[in-house]
Every structure is written in C-alpha cells, then in structure tokens.
Design brief:
The complex is a heterodimer. By secondary structure, chain A is α/β, with parallel strands linked by helices. Chain A contains 13 helices and eight strands. Chain A has a single domain, classed as TIM Barrel. In chain A, strands 1-2-3-4-5-6-7-8 form an eight-stranded parallel β-barrel, surrounded by eight helices. Chain B has a single domain, classed as 3-Layer(aba) Sandwich (Rossmann fold). Chain B is α/β, with parallel strands linked by helices. Classes of the chains: A alpha/beta, B alpha/beta.
C-alpha cells in the first residue's frame, strides 16, 4: 500500500476552499445554531464552545472544543464543518483530524500553545486555514501547509476596522510585489521572511496561491459586502450573528450581501429590520495585550 | 466567439472562467435572470449546493435556467452543478423546499463518500473519444488532452451518481461507476475538471453542444 503524502492532497485541500468562495462561514456553538446557519445559506460552519466575544468577556484559557460538541454539529448539518485548534497545538489538530472535521482553523482566537512554532500542517491529511495580518505572515502559513488564509481582523469586537486594515495590507503588499522587477524579488523574500519561490509565484500571479477570506469584526451585511468589494474571496462571521438580536435573519442577510456584494439595492433591502446588531467593542478601547490579532507571527 | 455564462451565486466561478477563456469563449457571470439573455451556454460550478439553492430561492433564477435548457441551451454542471441539474437527489432532506434546476435524468447522492478526509485525486476513464470535433481537438486549450483515454479527477466531498436514465450517456467512469454523464447538450460530472490543466471535459461539452458555431449575441433558446 502506498502512503499518501500531504503534498498529494494539496489540490483537494486548496480546492475545497475554492468551492467555499463567495460564501459565508459562521461560528456556531450548538447543533441548533449550526442548523440555523445552514438554513441561512452558510457554506460551512465553525464549531466551537464559545464565540470570540464570550472568550473575550469571560477570559481564561481557550482550548479546542469538546469532541462531543463537534460530533453533534457534524451530525446536524450537511455542509462542511471546521473546528479550531490552538496555535502550535499539533495534538489538538490530530484529535480534530480523528474526529473527521473538514477543515482545521489554527486560530489566534484560542490561547496559543506555542509562542514560537505553528503546527507543521504538511503532516496532516485534513486541510488548515490560518489567520494573517500581512503578506509575510500569510506566506509563512502557506509554507507550513495552510490551504486557505483568512485575514485576522480583531475577533469578538464587531469592529470591522482591523479586518479592513489586514485585508488592505495583504492585498496592497501583493500589488506592490507584482510591480517589482525580478531582481528585486530576492530582497522582497527577505523582507517578507518567506521562501523566494513562493514570493516569486505571488509576484507573477498577482494573488495568493490559496483562497483569501476575511475574518474578525464583520457584523453587518454592509461589512461583508465591503470586504468582498475590496477583493476578499469570502467571509467568516463569528460573534456577529449569534450575538445579535435576530440571528436567523441577520445570517441570511449577510449571505445575500456577500453574493450580491456589488449591488447596493440588494444590500439595502437585506439590511432592513435586522434588529439589534451585536453591541461590540471599539478595537481602540481594547488594551494591546488583549488583542487577539497579535497572536501568531 | 460564443459567450458562455457561469452561475456565480457562490463557488468555483473563476476557475471555470479561466478554462473557458483558454478555449476561446467569452464568459459572463450570472447572478440574476436577465444575465441569462443571449448566452450560448451555462456552466453551473462546484460550490455548496444547499447554499447555491438558498441564494437562488425566491429569485426564479434556477427555474429560468431550466426553461432555457428545455429550449435547448447547453449546460455543464460540476459537483454541486450536477446535484442542481439532477432530476432526483437521493437524500432530499438537505434540499427540501429549495429550488433546483433538474432536467438531467439521473439520481445523485450528495456528499456520498463522507467528509473531506474521503476527498481525493484519481484518474477517471473516458468512455468516449476525447473530442468529437477536430477543430476543438487542435484548439489552444489550457493543456494537452490525454492520449490514453484518461483524465485526472479531483473529487471533493463528491456526490455519487446512483442511477442513470435511459437517455443518458456515460462519458467517464471510475471503478466502474459513472462519474460524468451527458444528456443532449447537458454534461455533468461528480469531480472538478475546472481545477486541473486538462480541459478535456469542457471540450467534450462545447464540441457536443456545437457551441463553437453559435453567434455570441443571439439567444440560443428562442421559444
């Protein structure tokens, strides 16, 4: 029997993310929420025990979810199920792979397990999505085996400004790289702290070799549409849906706004009567040590 | 040059556009019913079939697609596209109450092999010549056609074709099971030909549907 190498799964694993493009991935903490997300048109759900807003409010160490919770959510829906492992916690990732999740998020929303190394994702058959705040960080995660990148934003705030900053940074750095001459790419690789071959590929293609979603602070249909207009491939919504007044309606509205992101009439129509948005926290009021985006390197 | 639409509610739209451009087609993204006007054919891409159906709910878009297919518009469905084109879905609960297109006389089961860990890349055996049209066979393409009657199949949380109706031709098999089928100008497959450089399946569809002759600005489906 031949052993399947992780590299052999590159196309199916990056390909699954390609199939999620133009869609919304929603954080859910119960099977009931997972069903609401699926009914609203989510392309996948992220199974976790506490949404980022609660992790932020309650404090303490945030870890991988209970396998019973993840099993319950897998059984509840027919769309892909993702789950979070702590940065660097390769055994949590092994457990999630054993549970049969469709994607693992090596996530700064949980407490990091390793302040030096990320998980060696090339050792897994299951695909990984990782957060990034800039192009170099995205390329380092891809080198480690990530099949999908999401900009980090600032999870659990409902403040879209950091998601905006990270997405603009990544896309701006790609545009700048594409304008460099071949002989300038060597030093670009040094500046980005990423492998030269990967840097050259991004410069040539003018885009990442994997799908780029946005995350961290999206709370309204207009937030989601703005990210799509800027060039995101899709949207993660965490606390924004189930911390709002009418989750089912808001979830559906964000899905519609993500598809019809360039049609202001549709966005206006779906933005009506959504009830209370999540209260939110201004990122500027979050003391630096409590900013999740600064976890990971 | 023909204009081929790509249903763009959600999913692998960009990849199909790139393959079609490589085969000399103009493309247009289809999100609303009037985007269908003047199209010579339509690709329904991979994605999440339940999400695509929900996004189409209330718009009449998928019903309009069916009306045009019934009037002769060629269609190519990959993965989720196959599910939406199928007359029967074996596990109807997930799509209950949602619009689909239908018209292809097959029964499919969504996500028939399990989660992402059951996804994989395997060769599929073509059961027809790689192309029926000399002009397209020598076209520019995005890659070489296989000479051995095989192409690479990328199967991602793939559906399974459990029944093939009498008017449906099998185009490709894997392990003896149908993985690509054709009924008139409609072609559909369980894998993702848009993710590999080999454009064989797109060529088969275009050639079989006679799309290379169709003027780009005249509707294919006059009623």
């Amino acid at each position: 029997m031949t052993v399947e190498l992780a590299a052999d799964r590159s196309l199916v694993n990056t390909g699954l993310a390609e199939m999620l493009k133009g869609g919304v991935i929603m954080d859910v903490v119960t099977p009931e929420q997972a069903r609401i997300a699926e009914e609203a048109g989510a392309v996948a759900v992220m199974a976790l025990e506490r949404v980022p807003a609660d992790i932020r409010a309650q404090g303490g160490v945030a870890r991988m979810s209970d396998p019973d919770l993840i099993d319950g959510i897998i059984d509840a829906v027919s769309i892909p199920v993702m789950a979070k492992a702590r940065i660097g916690h390769f055994v949590e990732a092994q457990v999630l792979e054993a549970l049969g999740v469709d994607y693992i998020d090596e996530s700064e929303v949980l407490s990091p397990a390793d302040y030096v190394n990320h998980i060696d994702k090339t050792r897994f058959r299951v695909p990984f999505v990782c957060g990034a705040t800039n192009l170099g960080e995205a390329l380092r995660r891809i080198t480690e085996g990530a099949s999908m990148i999401r900009s980090k934003g600032e999870a659990g705030t409902g403040d879209v400004s950091e998601a905006m900053r990270h997405l603009r940074t990544i896309l701006g750095e790609i545009r700048a790289l594409a304008s460099r001459t071949d002989d300038e790419l060597f030093v670009a690789a040094k500046e980005l702290a990423a492998p030269y071959e990967l840097v050259r590929r991004v410069a040539r293609d003018g885009k990442l070799p994997v799908v780029l979603f946005v995350a961290g602070g999206v709370a309204t249909p207009a937030d989601a549409a703005m990210m799509m207009q800027l060039g995101a491939d899709g949207v993660f919504v965490g606390s924004g849906i189930f911390k709002s007044g009418n989750p089912a309606k808001r979830a559906k509205a964000i899905v519609e706004a993500t598809t019809h992101f360039d049609d202001a009439e549709v966005i206006a129509a779906v933005s009506r009567g959504l009830g209370e948005a999540m209260v939110g926290i201004n990122v500027a009021d979050v003391p630096a040590p409590h900013r999740l985006a600064e976890r990971g390197w | 040059m023909v204009t081929v639409g790509v249903l763009a509610l959600q999913g692998a739209v960009r990849e199909h556009e790139a393959v079609l451009a490589g085969l000399g087609c103009h493309t247009r993204r289809v999100r609303r019913t009037d985007d269908l006007d003047g199209l010579a054919g339509l690709v329904i891409p991979g994605g999440e079939s339940t999400a695509i159906a929900r996004l189409a709910r209330g718009s009449g878009l998928l019903g309009a697609v069916r009306a045009r297919i019934d009037a002769g518009m060629p269609a190519l469905g990959t993965c989720a596209g196959l599910i939406l084109l199928a007359d029967e879905v074996a596990d109807p609960a997930a799509l209950a109450g949602l619009p689909t297109v239908g018209g292809l006389d097959v029964t499919v089961r969504r996500n028939a092999f399990g989660g992402q860990l059951a996804s994989g890349e395997w060769d599929v055996d073509l059961t027809v010549p790689a192309t029926t049209d000399g002009q397209l066979a020598s076209g520019t393409g995005t890659g070489a056609d296989p000479t051995d009657g095989r192409m690479r199949g990328v199967f991602i949380r793939a559906p399974r074709i459990e029944r093939v109706g009498p008017g449906v031709e099998v185009l490709a098999v894997r392990d003896g099971e149908p993985v690509a089928v054709r009924q008139g100008p409609v072609v559909a497959c369980t894998f993702h030909p848009e993710l590999v450089p080999d454009a064989t399946l797109h060529r088969l569809w275009l050639a079989g549907a006679d799309l290379h002759d169709t003027p780009s600005n005249s509707p294919v489906a006059p009623s």
